[in-house]
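Objective 1.3, modelling of assemblies. Example input:
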Amino acid sequence: MDGILYEAQRQGRISFYMTHYGEEAMMATAAAVQPEDVVFGQYREAFMLVYRGFTIDEMVNQCFSTDLDYGKGRQMPIHYGSKKLNFQTISSPLGTQIPQAAGAAYALKLSGQQACTLCFFGEGAASEGDFHAGLNMAATLGCPTIFFCRNNGFAISTPSSEQYKGDGIASRGVGYGIDTIRVDGNDVWAVYNATKAARRIAVEENKPVLIEAMTYRIGHHSTSDDSTKYRDRKEVEERAQFDNPITRLRRYLENKNLWDQEKEDSWRKDVRKEVLTSFAAAEKRKKPSLQHLFTDVYDEIPANLREQQRELERLIKQYPEYYSTEEFASS
Amino acid sequence: MLSKSIQQTCRLAPLLTKCRGYATGAPSLSGIQQGVAHSKLLKRAPEDALRSPELAHLSATHSETKKMNLFQAVNDAMSIALTTDDTAVVFGEDVSFGGVFRATSGLAEQFGKDRVFNTPLTEQGIAGFAIGMASVGHTAIAEIQFADYIYPAFDQLVNEAAKFRYRSGNLFNVGGMTIRAPCSAVGHGGHYHSQSPEGFFAHVPGLKVVTPRSPIQAKGLLLASIRDRNPVVFFEPKCLYRAAVEEVPVGDFELPLGKAEILKKGTDVTVLGYGAQIYTLENAIQLAEREMPGLSCELIDLRSILPWDIETVVESVKKTGRLVIAHEAPKTAGVGAEIASTVMEHCFLNLEAPIQRVCGWDTPFPLAFEKFYMPSMIRCFDAIKNAVNY
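Predicted structure (tokens):
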């Protein structure tokens, strides 16, 4: 899916995309937590949704801002959210989800649910003040939260050597009084085991855990970024070839006779077909109804917004050649 | 229109001796009894407390009232919220022992340390934590110790809380969160214990911004804010915490958000403010009506700054043709600017004089010069006079 949607952006069919290349082993976190655990992501966590049953259709409709997008076409592509899958809607500001995850965990604890929150962020976002706030609050207030840092070596163009001087992110956890572990982020079993143990500590002992998964961002930061401007293409190729989480898992499965080239080929074909089918359907769909420009700012539309909505309706009527509404669903 | 005679008698009459800040409540200027302590707007008798049509429904069932100052009324509102909603919690810096302004006194003892608790000293953390709790359906009542220190939480409030419902297509919302913060001048607060930052938040679609003028208002508006299904920033004028005392209904009641209140009917000029400024305006009106016999001012308490009650204000200005707006925050791009331009759009043909704005100067809030910074009774009086004489 990353491959096809990345290409779709290159062709100008969607406005923006971010791939997960090199960080696919984080999928194991999804397997290690429970459906009732609430996820707060950064933006490179589509694997969690895939694991929990979010369909390719649902993702594609979000990226294309169709009338089926749960977010009603208001946010950029890949800002997914799913109430039924306990996945809080992604927002762009970095690190903001960290103290939020602590607060949500505190609420889960008070309500007596045997559940935790799982909060993802990159090593760059960990430089934000919200990282400090969130971890300190979670520790002092006993919040069942798993703080999961994807340390992939780069925050856009900034290498981690310019991001921090200490021993990565994990070394900070101890300072907050948080149980902490660093794992090989390209090893699904290591990621799985650490997350599973962290969940037990969080839920049974009502305290946070910090996991730092060391990995490498093989793709560009986003479709708006050309990473060859700041790092050696050869280094990327080497990492992709010699320490690739997918290849590593595949070898494991092949050794156990659980996977082979035939299964690989047929699976690739099926996924490709499914993505392309969703893709074609999404391109034909209308955008969300224009009324949703004004709904959900508040629970009810206040008078000033009603008036602005009427003003836009008048403008649309008066200048139809400028304001084409054909591609938007009627309400 | 004002009669000629009123305009002619308008003059700045014998100003008297000492002039002290309203917080001290000194009766000093031109015989006007200045200050909250002398306000006729506070309900000092139980029967007055329930006279407002907004509270009429209470008189049948819970007519009992109790004398409370503003911090006690805020405390009472939170106590009711914690009693009626099992998911409600109260937290912030130093709230556990009762809060630096005593607003959370006794709550930790009554409701337990899990529901009323101290946080580390981090405003962005407090706001983010509140958002997180509300995002899973709980009620979070968070305190920022002074409104001056709300800026570290600005990102969480503006980018996160305000946009939570909209950006998720209403999958998620943080309607259960309320941020309380003591605001405004206190006589000696200097730069960082005096600010009125409501204007910053008035520019943020998705937030509600509310400020009360009295204990009854504080209780009713805070309960409404806590229960409103949108994130609310609730600014409490700290100079009123102890100074404003009235008979407050002991029952569970709410006052409507988004509705201004006409405190005094008048026909010649609309005078508009909110929070503690209401008492300064009350005094300015007394002075103006005494100095300009026959003058009739209408006093409006905006109460909700976002969304604000355009209809009530516009209706009033259509009647009076004149508008004076006063707030402590600096003038440029303040809330007054928004009100003035909106009223101009709606009342262009009714306006008899330029809209007057009496605000803090465009400076940081100064310590030694506070009296000269404030939109004082004299400045408000002068503005009413200018509007009337134009």
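Chain A touches chain B through 50 residues (CB under 8 Å).
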